[in-house]
Design a protein that fits this description.
about 625 residues, 3 domains, eight-stranded antiparallel beta sheet, six-stranded antiparallel beta sheet, 13 helices, 22 strands, about 25% strand, disordered N terminus
Length: about 625
């Protein structure tokens, strides 16, 4: 194998094992092996907003079509969201994460959204470290002006406030399975959910407030209270009157109502929001203004009630704020959480970091490898490199041998019947087969072991002919001379066979030793894993599974070394045997032609024959070939 091929092989191995991803320079944290870019589109093609919005919670819907759940942890605890600066971690929390069904709802606090200016952030995943804590920060997902947020994801228990203000419900409502975002709250004539009073829910006289939620009417006509707040003399009600949404403020006998112009469809989810401030009340449906009127909030500290007065429907994603949210904010809530949310958020393709084996299941295994496992893997990698180097080099060498043999034998057949001419000609003329081997063909023929045997036989022939001619003055060769020539050819055959089989033992070592080295690494890794279990005193499947899988990687690596080496060895062995057979055939032909040409003087054929091995009853040569008998 030439130097260029060796360098190319090692360069390929190093590139495959250590090539970093193109994005490694701006990767947030190397412990996370995968990420995808999420871009918000606030242009006319996406979701146009009229003003800059800061610190807005955005719903990121993940499904099998835009996210590889198999590359993340089963509970989504390895999800992280990082700003476009590749350094700022954005608060988020998971409402639902179902890796089996391929569905997840994640709320992310986006720092700022500006009109006509896309904002990007990154979703990182792929950290399988069992000691890694969850990244959820529900309280940090919402700003300080948010008083309460309810996902209604608790089945069989009271609704929980996600803001950290502790405004939890007093009683459990009826769950609405298959709600708009995860689960929801079902309201009927007999069920209502009470939220007790708290300082964070207090309203001041004429102060601001925002109530937003997803609502679905289940009967027609539907009349009742959706969200209400009532004290001794005052009340604030967001409800439906024959399906028409409205907001009503009552101060004693004075009632002010703002209603939409059309009823909500039955059986369909609609986003409903009310914004109150010193200037009056505004009603929004699906992010668009549906009604506006006078009326300021009274000072109230009473609790809230969800449902009542005959309302029948479902409720999801209720948010209550202590400020009057701008229209762009309401539009963002409705669109980013609704079916058109895909227009606001564009999820890019998955990107991997580190080397080719750092992501997915293989990344988990590699990161869990113990020291003994790494030792076995490194040894196997060296064995693999050596075996491939031998196979590639030996295949190239045998290819040259085959071409050289074929080229020589084509020219040999033109002079095989007149070896006496070659024995008496000058050395240069004989070595070139009577001038038939030119400089161009010699570049191919010089790789032929048959040509080298011919060269050995030719030199020995010339020496023997000269010696016999000096002794007998004839053009014959004695039996001892012919046998000596054959012995020299047999010696050359042994040396050429050694060249053909050179380094083949390295393949046999890889075939037999690779699996055992891998097995040793596996056994040691399993021992260490179970020793850790014994030390902890409890069995934790997520904790021991990576260790066992990493231990098995050594066995896989051992087989990966042995299997290609086995196939390559058998293929190369067949090529070597073919070359050996060609050399045996040539030696027999050369000696036979030699016997015919130098069999005696005056054309008399009295040259002794070569006795076959099975008929040999006398002395043998050192290489086991039969000695000619007269």
């Amino acid at each position: 194998m030439n130097r260029f091929s060796m360098r190319l092989l090692w360069l390929g191995l190093l590139t495959a094992l250590a090539a970093p991803a193109a994005q490694a320079g701006n990767w947030w944290n190397s412990e996370w092996t995968a990420r995808k870019k999420i871009t918000t589109d606030t242009t006319a093609a996406g979701v146009p907003i009229p003003e800059t919005i800061s610190a807005a919670p955005v719903l990121v819907r993940l499904h099998a079509g835009n996210f590889q759940f198999e590359g993340a942890r089963e509970d989504g605890s390895d999800l992280r969201f990082v700003a476009e600066d590749h350094a700022t971690v954005l608060p988020h929390h998971v409402e639902k994460y179902d890796a089996l069904m391929g569905e997840a709802f994640v709320w992310v606090k986006v720092s700022e959204l500006t009109p006509k200016a896309p904002v990007s952030f990154w979703l990182y995943h792929g950290n399988r470290n069992p000691q890694m804590p969850r990244g959820d920060d529900a309280k940090g997902t919402y700003d300080a002006d948010t008083a309460a947020v309810y996902h209604f994801s608790e089945i069989g228990s009271a609704p929980q406030d996600m803001t950290g203000n502790g405004n939890h419900g007093q009683n459990a409502g009826l769950p609405a399975g298959g709600a708009y975002i995860g689960t929801g709250l079902r309201l009927d004539n007999n069920t209502a959910v009470a939220i007790p009073p708290s300082p964070s829910l207090q309203w001041t006289e004429g102060g601001p407030a925002t109530i937003a939620a997803w609502v679905k009417l289940t009967v027609a006509p539907s009349t009742g209270w959706i969200v209400s707040r009532v004290d001794a003399t005052n009340s604030v009600v967001v409800g439906a009157d024959n399906g028409v949404p409205y907001v009503e403020i009552a101060r004693g006998s004075s009632i002010q109502r703002v209603a939409a112009s059309a009823a909500l469809p039955v059986g369909a989810w609609r986003h409903l929001a009310v914004v109150a401030g010193p200037a009056g009340m505004t009603l929004f449906v699906d992010g668009e203004e549906a009604g506006r009127g006078a009326g300021a909030l009274p000072a109230m500290s009473a609790g809230l009630q969800l449902g009542g007065e005959g309302f029948q429907g479902e409720l999801d994603e209720l948010q209550i704020a202590r400020v009057a949210r701008p229209p762009g904010y309401i539009r963002l809530l409705a669109v980013s959480q609704g079916e058109k949310g895909s227009k606001l958020l564009a999820l890019g393709p998955d990107e991997q970091t580190g080397s080719w084996f750092s992501a997915g299941y293989l990344g988990i295994i590699v990161k869990s490898l113990t020291v003994d496992g790494w030792i076995a893997i490194v040894i196997l990698m060296i064995m693999m490199a050596i075996s491939w180097w031998v196979m590639i080099g030996k295949a190239a060498y045998l290819q040259g041998v085959t071409k050289g043999n074929d080229a020589f034998m084509k020219l040999w057949h033109h002079v095989a019947d007149d070896l006496k001419m070659l024995g008496n000609a000058d050395e240069e003329h004989a070595k070139t087969l009577g001038g038939r081997i030119d400089a161009k063909s010699f570049k191919v023929i010089r790789r032929s072991p048959i040509y080298r045997l011919y060269d050995i036989g030719l030199d020995e022939l010339r020496d023997r002919v000269k010696a016999d001619q000096r002794r007998r003055a004839t053009h014959t060769l004695s039996a001892q001379s012919v046998q000596a020539i054959r012995s020299m050819l047999d010696g050359g055959l042994v040396r050429e066979t050694q060249k053909l089989n050179a380094q083949m033992v390295l393949l046999t070592i890889a075939i037999s030793g690779g699996p055992f080295v891998g097995l040793l690494g596996t056994v040691a890794g399993v021992m260490i894993t179970f020793a850790g279990v014994a030390q902890e005193g409890e069995v934790n499947v997520p904790g021991i599974a990576p260790g066992i899988s990493a231990a098995l990687l050594a066995t896989v690596a051992g087989l990966a070394v042995a299997i290609p080496a086995l196939f390559g060895y058998n293929y190369l062995l067949t090529r070597v045997k073919n070359a050996q057979s060609d050399m045996h055939v040539f030696i027999d032909e050369f000696v036979t032609k030699l016997a015919e040409c130098y069999s005696g003087s005056n054309g008399e054929k009295h040259f002794p024959t070569i006795v076959p091995t099975e008929m040999l009853a006398a002395e043998e040569s050192p290489l086991g070939e039969p000695v000619a008998q007269e």
